[in-house]
Amino acid sequence: MTPAASKLYTDDVSLLMVLIETNPFFWNSINSTLSFSKFISNVLAFLNSILLLNRLNQVVVIATGYNSCDYIFDSSALHNHNQKAESLLQKLEEFVDKDESLCRDDSVDGPGFSLLSGSLSMALCYIQKVFRSGPLHPRPRILCLHGSPDGPGQYVSIMNAIFSAQRSMVPIDSCIMGAQHSAFLQQASYITGGVYLKPQLLDGLFQYLTTVFTTDLHSRSFLQLPKPVGVDFRASCFCHKNTIDMGFICSVCLSIFCKHHKKCSTCGSIFGQAQTQDSSTPDRKRKTSVDK
Amino acid sequence: MFCIGAAAAAAAATLPSPSLSFLLEWNGSVAGDGSWLGGDAHLPLSILPLVNGTAVSFLYPSPSLSLSSLCEWRRACRDDSRRSGNRPELRSPLQRRTDAVASPQNQIPIPKLKPAGKERGAEEGDEASTGNTRRIRSGAIQRRVISLLRSKYFTVKNRISVSWSVDGVEVLVRKFGIGVSNMLRQETNGEERRLNRDEEDEEEENDRGRDAWERTYADERSWESLQEDESGLLRPIDNKTLYHAQYRRRLRTATSARIQKGLIRYLYVVIDLSRAATEIDYKPNRMVVVARQVEAFIREFFDQNPLSQIGLLTLKDGVAHCLTELGGSPESHIKALMGKLVCSGDASLQNGLDLVHSLLNQIPSYGHREVLILYSALSTCDPGDIMETIQKCKSSKIRCSVIGLSAELYICKYLCQETGGSYSVSLDEPHLKELVLEHAPPPPAIAEFAIANLIKMGFPQRAAEGVISICSCHKEAKVGGGYTCPRCKARVCELPTECCICGLTLVSSPHLARSYHHLFPITPFDDVAPSVSSDPHKVPKNCFGCQQSLLAPGNLPGLSVTCPKCKQHFCLDCDIYIHESLHNCPGCESFKHSESQ
């Protein structure tokens, strides 16, 4: 790169990965005045303001659907120079149609769970590609515009993604549009050093986005952003799904129980005695034998 | 077998003979049997004085030359020079040469070397007069020689220059010190010595010790990063595919089956701070390099094993000291380690193992007991029978692993075999880093060692921001931001820790979640066969994870891998990132009705 380019890469160049929730069951069940189309127009104005702040800012949009996730928009792709909004909307429409066609569930109660872990993983892979591209790169961050409740089946994958983001020093910001707080995203923002926000008036979403989530990482040290309140790190027990203060952990598989059991239900280990070779386990785990 | 002092002896033969004696004195004592004791050589070397650059060995029936015959030869040269009256011509005691005398204006040539037994006649005279050296320099031969030297533990402290003849019959290795070359240069003013590579001449002219370009040759061995292709041209080694292939092999062996791992580990790191740690083969010295790697290891260890604990031990002066007790906070260990780094004395493996054994006896039965020894010394200075200590460790189920920095030792290998650990010897600093970090992920659990137990743990809540309380770890008042033990309501500053008051282990759910990827590993990806990858319909254009193009430059099919469950294609870098850091397959996570959901 020429020396001139290095002068352009100042501290405040950012790469923003936006994960948009397109789960149709959620958008149907939301009981506020924010419809999906209004939401998209707010988000488009927000993305334009990000791109206006600095010539080198990049924005990548990934859609989190009910059945699949995909890349919708990449501002650094060459063919997108003139018609950013049109290409984004077009690809979004294609994605929503494809997502709907993949749907195999006949009826869904409530908002259902969207695939946040998938879009987080894709965003992190993209960020790793940016890191590999050389010493001059924008500082990446992830913004989740999420609304569906947390899917318990995704706990392990989301935690893996969070720890990987923490190691790469990528903050995960979250803006919750649903009715209830999301414990997963609260933990994500706390662990990675991002901002968690649940706006009170969704009509003014654009104002929340521009005041809280627009600033780059370098400038955040000068601003007073919403602080995390009451992040609940308590675990839930595997037997009753209650949140507990004190519990018992299986030393083999780290499953959490609220009271003393004789046998671990996850890995089948019998507590208090050494394992034998022929103890059957549902996970088909086996230990190595001592004589190698 | 190597010859010493090629140019010196050759030059000495043309010079007044006192310079030959200087050579012997500077280069240390020479044993009567011809073995080389001085300098840094660990090999028996033979001294083969060169006559005008020719190895006399070809003329001698036996390869080595004793000191007495050397002196005799020197005397003979001196007598010759006195008799002839001009500059001493080079004559060997066995064969008189009648060819041209090397005059000061001539360059000292390296004539052709013939195999033993052949006569050297007049053609050498031509050689001598033209000074045509006709040497072959081939990177391959050079590399082989240097690797041969390294493999025999030859410590290269001074320059090693290699020159060889047209016939490639023998390689003459010269070990030259600065003092000698300077002295000889002064005595043979104006005489060019084209005995070795051109760099050497420039170097002698510069009168410098080691310039940067020399260090590239001597220390960094820059030729090793080159490879010859089929036409003999040199190209740099392509690291990316090699690295990926290495990584795939490692991954395949590691995750071939769902093996249970020891997740709650109590590990002692034993650092050897004996005299051997002051060696400078790792820059700046071994002790600093080891400390650096241990610091990185401690951070990585707590990242991957948040419920485990580490303690540090040092081996110094034949005694083992406990530097830090078993604890879960990385900062305290690193601070203690960087505080005192002083080396002295011998390393005692038995004392270290005894101390570890007594310390690890106190831990609960569900924990996995491990020791990682970073051993630089080549010996161990033990008070008793180390075999007994090893058996004691084995019966206490302690898994000992050793990483050697100098060479492989039998006792370390035996220790690791008996206790089920791993033994490796590092070649250089990046290799050491790789070996040390291999011990960070949990090792496979050994069947009889792991007694499953239910451990009582507490999940404290984070206190509100404005609350003032006295924290139990630092014994001072702090405002907000701590955690409250659910059993005794004492405040602790950070997690995971053990409550000082009631002894309850306090963790948060993300700490447990950090280890879940060991319990639910993802399957390794499969390579895409070249026949499939060249078909444009079967392989998508972009990697599913990062949208990078999967085509090599020029629209050729590039390398990609595919997940066996969701059948998505990924690039090689995503493959490495997904399996080493992320532990989620983006394809499987992004499709609701894939097999894994």
TrEMBL record, chain A:
Q: Matching Pfam families, A to Z?
A: Tfb4 (PF03850)
Keyword set for this entry? DNA damage, DNA repair, Metal-binding, Nucleus, Transcription, Transcription regulation, Zinc, Zinc-finger
By its UniProt entry, which InterPro entries does this protein fall under? TFIIH_Tfb4/GTF2H3, vWFA_dom_sf
A GO cellular component annotation in the UniProt record: transcription factor TFIIH holo complex
GO terms, biological process: nucleotide-excision repair; regulation of DNA-templated transcription
Q: From which residue to which does any coiled coil extend?
A: none
| Molecular function GO terms recorded | zinc ion binding
Q: Where in the cell is it found?
A: Nucleus
Main localization category: nucleus
- Keyword Transcription regulation present in the record's keywords: the answer is yes
Tell me its family.
Belongs to the TFB4 family.
Record's subunit section: Component of the 7-subunit TFIIH core complex composed of XPB, XPD, TFB1/GTF2H1, GTF2H2/P44, TFB4/GTF2H3, TFB2/GTF2H4 and TFB5/GTF2H5, which is active in NER. The core complex associates with the 3-subunit CDK-activating kinase (CAK) module composed of CYCH1/cyclin H1, CDKD and MAT1/At4g30820 to form the 10-subunit holoenzyme (holo-TFIIH) active in transcription.
Q: What function does this protein fulfil?
A: Component of the general transcription and DNA repair factor IIH (TFIIH) core complex, which is involved in general and transcription-coupled nucleotide excision repair (NER) of damaged DNA and, when complexed to CAK, in RNA transcription by RNA polymerase II. In NER, TFIIH acts by opening DNA around the lesion to allow the excision of the damaged oligonucleotide and its replacement by a new DNA fragment. In transcription, TFIIH has an essential role in transcription initiation.
Name under which the protein is recorded:
General transcription and DNA repair factor IIH subunit TFB4
Q: What species does this protein belong to?
A: Fraxinus pennsylvanica
Q: What is the lineage of its organism?
A: Eukaryota, Viridiplantae, Streptophyta, Embryophyta, Tracheophyta
Automatic annotation (TrEMBL), chain B:
The UniProt keyword set, sorted, is: DNA damage, DNA repair, Metal-binding, Nucleus, Transcription, Transcription regulation, Zinc, Zinc-finger
Stretches the record annotates as Disordered: 80-136, 188-213
Any one Gene Ontology BP term: nucleotide-excision repair
According to the entry, every stretch annotated as the C2H2-type domain falls at 563-583
The record's Pfam families line, in alphabetical order, gives: C1_4, Ssl1
Q: Does the keyword Zinc-finger apply?
A: yes
GO cellular component terms, A-Z: transcription factor TFIIH core complex; transcription factor TFIIH holo complex
Q: Where does this protein reside within or beyond the cell?
A: Nucleus
Q: Compositional bias (Basic and acidic residues) spans?
A: 80-90, 188-197
PANTHER family reported in the protein's UniProt record:
GENERAL TRANSCRIPTION FACTOR IIH SUBUNIT 2 (PTHR12695), GENERAL TRANSCRIPTION FACTOR IIH SUBUNIT 2-RELATED (PTHR12695:SF2)
What is the name of the protein in this document?
Answer: General transcription factor IIH subunit 2
- Organism of origin is Fraxinus pennsylvanica
Ranked from the top, the taxonomy reads: Eukaryota, Viridiplantae, Streptophyta, Embryophyta, Tracheophyta
